[in-house]
What does this fold into?
Amino acid sequence: MSLRSTLVPLVLSAAVAAALAGCSQSAPADAASAGNAAAFDLSKVDAPVTSFNVADLEPSIPACTDLNGHVNSKWLAANPVPGDRTSWGSFEVLGERSLAIQHAIVEQVAAAQPAAGSIEAKLGDLWRTGMDQAAIDAAGLAPLQPALDEIASLKDSAGIVGLLRERHAIGLGPVFSFGANADYKDSGTVIGYAGQGGLGLPEKGYYFDEDKAPIRAAYLEYIGKLLALSGVDADEATKQARAVLDFETRLARASLSRIELRDPAKRYNPVSAGEANRITPNFDWNAFFDTLQVPAKEKFSLAQPEFFAEFDRMLVDTPVEAWQAYLRFHTLDAAAPYLAAPFEEANFAFHSQALRGQKEMLPRWKRVLGVVNASMGEALGQLYVQAAFPPESKAQMQQLVQNLSAALKVRLENLDWMGEETKKRALEKWASFTPKIGYPDKWRSWDGLETTSEGYLANVRAARAFNHRYMLDRIGKPVDRTEWGMTPQTVNAYYNSTRNEIVFPAAILQPPFFDPKADPALNYGGIGAVIGHEMMHGYDDSGSQFDARGNFDLWWTPEDRKLFEERADRLVAQFDGYEALPGKHVKGRLTLGENIGDLGGLTVAYDAMRMALSRNPDADVVVDGMTQDQRFFANWATVWRRNFTENELRVRLETDPHAPANFRANGAPSNMPAFAQAFGCKAGDPMVREERVVIW
It folds into this structure.
């Protein structure tokens, strides 16, 4: 697992890979600083959203038997996973709408010949060079050849260490991860974090589990194919592929599992460079930080020290030829999506097709748009909010957040299992929550990023190095709390434990999550539950170990922590019992944080809805033959409608901290008396649990 995936804020769903955007902004003029909405013509955007519709309900599947089946079975049967996807549901449909808007924007930006040095000009360069398949194919391997030549010239351990330093300095670091994040014990300051990495398969179990043998075989074949495409003799490529897999297997053996990495203590190990050098005597951290030009010698986190001890041993006991094969392959693998068609197709055939069951590539415009988002996502987001984010959505969201916050406070104050000392600290944390809605207060600068009208890989690498330097330059400085971890055009949401903030980007504020014109039930069952979910991450198994200031500090009394863990264990057991595929169950411990978020978030959202309706009884109306309570739970299920390819589901069961969507649709409601009451469920019905899990 990379440093980013262990340290970044917890997200609501893994459906979309990007991020979010911020809360209170300076003013609408902020978003308009690069132009205005009228500058973009979205009249040709045709991308409908999916929203709750009573016509979708399946009466033959009672809600008390299977809420997900009752609400979603018709839609799921009519909407199989498209050939260029591995999952398809509410998130993906809304993501398609966001992509369509982004597509219109970049096409118009690229055609407009914007001023040199502007974000529009840089976005245009990325877009045009990415879309020029003919030029990319004609260039072949030439754009990557200098990097491969560097690897070919390695002669000893010292050369390997030097290359690792240089690659890490430009954001291409192999073997381990290094990045910046708030100090877990001093959340107002940014420090460096080094963490395990270097694996080409999704998780350490893929290197050892018997049922993953076919994936290992496909990976071995892919490594050999990519090496052969780069000019390595076929027999030699096969030999080197085995060396690469053996190399990674050794790293995997020294790595922690995804479940183990849920523990913040396994992600934080502050040391000085001198102390770290005792763990890695063959890898000098002082020299590493000098190369990266970061002030980290006095203190940085060397998480997973056992991994780094093994990496250090490999520097001296692994042949240079094996290191060269490993570095050559990963250099090729990282660049393949931006190279000529044979490299990109080989990369797709393993990572998407063999591993996840995707039948065909996304169209080129979507692939390139994904790269634009990864390279200059916030710049594109600045244009996105001009074109597609109405100010009234932000205002209504702010009110919803206030209502959810008030409901959460009442629940915390009335917990019957928590002592007063711990409850006081829990309320302190509640009082310090910071919500961000829509997009950032201030946009980051892109000054210094040099793009070109020729060379796709060159532009991608320039953006990667620029963003990496931007991240490294935070080290040793105060945390900038105006920054966002996601872009406005991302369909997702997150909680950041070191900032104690909840963040909701513009793109998620659409149906089925949010509709300014909808009745209260739909918005509370949609975005209201999302808001509650993100708030509850502050009190899940991991987030609850950070205090009101965002410091890693277990603020619980031992007695209360024991009670919390007993309740959490019951939720683990509940999800362990869900069988996603024959013989393959959900990992309740891996998904615990998200399941706590769902259970607490949906409960708080329901409370908030009832509080709002008590103040406005006229809104507590029956719509399309359903009460507000019924529509609340139905829209919750609508949010979680999703189909998967079987391979994608298998990968997620091993790696995703979120349970499969159908179990999320049913899991939280089955623990809530309000659900049973809404649909008239009785004891013994599958959606009524004998022993309900109640945490928050």
Notes: The two ends are 30 Å apart (CA to CA). The longest strand covers residues 186-196.
